[in-house]
Amino acid sequence: MTDEPLVLGIETSCDETGVGIVRGTTLLADAIASSVDEHARFGGVVPEVASRAHLEAMVPTIDRALKEAGVSARDLDGIAVTAGPGLAGALLVGVSAAKAYAYALGKPLYGVNHLASHICVDQLEHGALPEPTMALLVSGGHSSLLLSSDITSDVRPMGATIDDAAGEAFDKIARVLNLGFPGGPVIDRYAKEGDPRSIAFPRGLTGPRDAAYDFSFSGLKTSVARWIEAKRAAGEDVPVRDVAASFQEAVVDVLTRKAVRACRDEGVEHLMIGGGVAANSRLRVLAQERCEAAGIRLRVPRPKLCTDNGAMVAALGAEMVARGRAASDWDLSADSSLPVTDPHVPGRLRSHSHDHVHEVAKGNLYS
Amino acid sequence: MLLLALDTATPAVTVALHDGTSVLAASSQVDARRHGELLLPAVDRVLAEAGLRLDAVTGIVAGVGPGPYTGLRVGLMTADTFGLALGVPVHGLCTLDGLAYAADGSIADGPFVVATDARRKEVYWAQYADSRTRVTEPAVDRPGDLDIGGLPAVGAGALLYPDTFPDARGPEHVSAAALAALAAERLAAGEELEAPRPLYLRRPDAQVPKNYKVVTPK
Ligand SMILES: [Zn+2]
Asked: Is A151 helix (H, G, I), strand (E, B) or coil?
């Protein structure tokens, strides 16, 4: 299948510098440099620290991805990059690199949406995305329920968090329990040895009059923190494992319940779960149970593809090339609040200067 | 020799092509908020004007600042990636040195100061013995804390604070043409230029913003 598009993707929307290479729906390389350790002492991602790290890591990470994939840059069919949403300064580093790389190589540039990329990455694991697919994206940055009938052109928001992202709640509770940052993996680990039914934490936005597909984790966060503080104030030991398990259960119960309900309501037979929180073992198990009971096929990529990475950007870029979507212009900008309904940022209608820019670029190298 | 020089460390987005003898084409736009959008089209325009393609370039020269970080990184990331794709060396030059070099002619032979706007009511600055010789490390300071002894000064930072810089003059902004000419001169003299790494001069604001990492549009 060598006629499938060979695309390199660059991701810098948060603290991971990701460069991935795919051929169609086949993963060839997934190189990552993370600045997470530099953020740990602050308990969260510091934008300027992330941006500085992206600048230093970019060229070595591109190099590593090309070696890993065993391809030459001149054979690429396109360069894709996360244009948004994300941290503005961090995005701009990736966009600057992608534009320079595409221009110097004489390749088309595709500025793509970070959330659509999280969905599209599943093609690298389970083959072409079913159309339509319901997607539950959960991480430190996102908690969204999205419905897509064509990942390159149609992504519809069904629901989203009205306050904190799910992953943020994990970070906060881990901080209150003195378990460090990031909170997701460590809570998961402690929860395995705890009883998820021992403490009844609230399920946000699950009342009959609440928005059916929106999420809220702020109340849960506060309630767990208060519960822990009350224990401490009474001089009692905090049962860390039971708290972790009960908190985690409250989060994944709401996430899976709402996702399955959305699938049923819309008659969608496929649910994909992406984002860093998709690595949570309890979320995977409960989603599988509930999907099976509802006759829904569940697709969850392996954990490394769920967290932010360059392969997901490359996967969506390859789909853009395969479906003949318009490339982006050389003045592509980073858009920290790129709407989820824009899977990519196509070039404007062809003006004279636009044609000129692309003509020059096409002839630039290796043509 | 064919150098592509660029600088985004100040409000100016500036690009030039230099063949070792003279500037072939140049572009400068002043817009502090759109470095990311303006730079690549400017490179394309400059190449088109010179009738050349990017693969003819034998080296990249990038202004390393000091400058406000976000804009500064646009130029350095672009330079780094051009270097990678083309397999040519990427040289760094202090942005203040470019401004000092451009001041040749507008300033007499004696010592002077270059200052750019560091925002937050501060300036990036350095002192020069002449337009090619910097005598202090680039620094960031409040103008009120500086005493430059009445020396003439160039750059937007000097023009902004007349109390500290009573003899302020142009050029206001750095030009890639000057940066390229200075690099060409130093390379021809067999000098090593510095690595293209950013001069931030300030530590990052290490506060996690409230609602950090929330990128999902509401
Ligand atoms: Zn993400």
From this structure: coil
